[in-house]
Amino acid sequence: MKMRLTEKGAQRLSISFLLAPALAVIILLFLGGLITGLLRSLNYFPLIGLNDFNFEAYVAIFTDNGFIQSLVLTFHIAFTSTLISCILAVAAALLLRPAFRGKRIVHFFFSLNLTIPHLVGAIGVLYLFQNSGLVSRIMTGLDLISKPADFPAMVFDPWAIGIIIQYVWKEIPFIGVIVLAILLSVGEDYESVARSLGANRWQAFRQVTLPLIMPGVVSASVIVFAFTFGAFEIPYLLGRTFPAALPVLAYQSYTDVDLAARPQAMAMAMVIAFISTLLIMAYMKLSRVYIRE
Amino acid sequence: MTQVKLSGLTKIFDAKNPPAVDQLDLDIDSGKLTALLGPSGCGKTTTMKMIAGLLRPTSGDILFDGNSILSIKPEERGAVMVFQNYLLFPYMSIADNIGFGLKMRKVSKKEIRSRVTDMLDLVQLPGFEDRKPNQLSGGQQQRIALARALIVEPNVLLLDEPLSNLDAHLRDEMRVLIRRIQTEMGITTVFVTHDQEEAVVLADKVALLFDGRLQQFDSPDAFYDTPRSAEIATFFGGTNFIPGHYQDGVMKTDIGNFKAPHSAVGDGAAMLSIRPEAIELGVGGDNSVAGTILSHVYAGRYARFQVKIGDLEIEAITEPGQVKLFGDGDTVPVNFAPDKIWILEANSTPQPVGADSAG
C-alpha cells in the first residue's frame, strides 16, 4: 500500500515538473495581470497615490447609465455574432462534408479567411457597408435606393451590424473547420442508423448528428464568444462612440487624462473578465442539458 | 412478412473501377433467413445498404412484395439495418437507444417504455434501461442494436456481419438468439457475412457473391455437395480437384476411372471434385485406386492425411483412429464413393489441392 502511494506521489511530482514551464507562463502573465488589475480596480495603485482599498470604482461604473448600455451592447454583439456564426458554420460544414468534385479547392477558399487579420476584415466591412461604401453605391446605381445616404446604417450603427458582420465573416470558417473535422470523424453511419430506424433527414440531424457534434460546436463557440466579448479593435473601428463596447469604454477610461479614472477602467476590465467567465459557464451548462435531451 | 426481389441491381461507385454490385438478381424468401456471403469487398454491404435505402443503385430495381421501393425514403421502407459496429448512440441511455425508432414515429412515452422493457427481455438483458452504451460489452451492445431494430417491427431486417466482432463463445450465443428471434417473429432477414461457416449454420439460404456477382444461390448443403464452380467449392473449404474427361456417368482421369452419377456439366472435359472428408482410406472397390501416404496430422477430433496417387496429391480427412492403422509410406486403397463425387466445369481454375483446408 505504502509502495503504491509513493509511486503515485512520484508520478504526480513528475507531472507537475513537466507542467511547470507552461504553468509559470500562465501564472505570471495571466494571474499576475488579473491580480494587478483587481488591486487597481479596488483603488490600490500606490504609484499614482492611491492607497486605500474601496469599491468606489465599481459603484461608479454600475451607477453610470453609459456603462450599463455598453454592457448590454457588448453582450448583444458577442451573443448575436456567436449564434449566427454557429448556425451558418454548422450548415456550411454539412454542405462541405460529402465528397464532390473540387472539394479541396472549396475547402481552401472556405478556410482562407482564417489567415486574414480582423483589421483587414474591418476595413473590408467599412468599404462595403458604409453609407458611401460599395454596396450602397451599387444599389444606387441599380436604382434600388435614390442616393447613397439612403442606405441603412450598417457601420457606426446602434445595432452594431457592421461589427457583427465582420465577426460572422471571420468566425464561420473557424467554427466550420472544427465542426467539419468532427463531422468527418463521426462519419455518416450514425445518421444512416437513424434514417433506417425511421428518422427523417431533420430528425436524424437534430437527434443524432447535432448531439454528436455539439461538444465541438460548444468549445468553438465558447472561444468565439469570449473573443467577441472582450475584443477591442473591431468595435473601436466599426462601432459608435456612444454607447461603445465595453473594451472600448475601458480603453477610453484608461487613457483618460484624469488618472482617477484608472480604477474605473480596471473595474470595467474585471467586469468583462467576470461576466465572460459567468456567461461561458452558463452556456456550457445549457448546452450540456441540450445534449442530454 | 415481406418478399424481397433484387432485379439487375447494379452499383458503380467509380466509373474507373468494376461495379461494386453487378447485375444482381435475387429472390429473397419471405420470413426466411438469407445470408449474403462473400469475401470482403464483394459488394455484400453495398447490396444491403441499397435495400435499406442508404445508397442509391446505379441501375436495377428492388421490389418488396412485387412493388418497387426505389422511390421510397429509407425511413419509410421498413427495412432496418443493424451495422457491424453496432453504432449505439453514445450519449443516449440504453432505453433511449432502443426506443429511438418509436420516438421518431411519435409513439407515446408510456408505450415506448413498456415496449423497451419487452425488447430487453427478448434480447435477455432485462434491467439495462438506464445504462450507457460505453458501460456495455461488445456482445451486449450487439443485442441492444438488435433490439433497437426489432422494436420498430421491420418488414425486412438487415444484419451487417452480426457476429464478426464477437469472440467465439458470444458468437454461438448470438447465433442462437438471432435464429430464435427470427423464427419467432418471422421477419424476412438478410445478413451479410464473410464466414462460410456462419452462413451455413445460420441461414435458410445462402447467396454467394464474388466481385459483386452472384455465384450461387442455394440451400447451405448445396454449396458443399453441388457447388457450381471450383472457386465456390474452394471457398467452402478445401476440396480435391482431379482433371479428366466425363462421359456416360464415368470420369476418366490420369489416376483411374471413377463412377460419378452427379454432375454440374455434360459430357466432355471436366473436373472431378471430392471433399477430403469424403475420401475413405483402406476401402477397396470399383471406385478405389491405390495411393501412398505422404504425411499425416492428428488433430484430436479428426486426422488429416496427404496421399499421393500417381502424380497427384490429395487430402483426406478421416476419423482420428485411422492414424493407428496407416503410417507414412504405406500404400493403401483410396476409395472415392460415387455419391460423394461432383463433376465440375473443366475450365475453372482450381486452387492447389490442400492449400486451403477446412476449419
Describe the structure.
- The complex is a heterodimer of chains A (293) and B (359).
- Chain A contains twelve helices and no strands.
- In chain A, helix 1 crosses helix 12, helix 3 runs parallel beside helix 7 and helix 8 packs across helix 9.
- The longest helix of chain A is centred in the first third of the chain and has 40 residues.
- Chain A is flat.
- The two termini of chain A are 43 Å apart.
- In chain A, 32% of the residues are buried.
- The mean pLDDT of chain A is 87.
- With 359 residues, chain B is α+β, with helices and mostly antiparallel strands.
- Chain B has two domains: 220 residues, Rossmann fold; 107 residues, OB fold (Dihydrolipoamide Acetyltransferase, E2P) (Beta Barrel), CATH 2.40.50.100.
- Helix content of chain B is 25%, strand content 33%.
- In chain B, strand 17 and strand 18 form a beta hairpin.
- In chain B, helix 3 packs across helix 4, helix 3 packs parallel to helix 5 and helix 4 crosses helix 5.
- The longest helix of chain B is centred in the middle third of the chain and has 18 residues.
- Classes of the chains: A mainly alpha (293), B alpha+beta (359).
- The interface between A and B is medium-sized, with 18 and 26 residues.
Name some characteristics of this structure.
heterodimer, A: 293 residues, 12 helices, B: 359 residues, alpha+beta, Rossmann fold, OB fold (Dihydrolipoamide Acetyltransferase, E2P), six-stranded mixed β-sheet, disordered C terminus
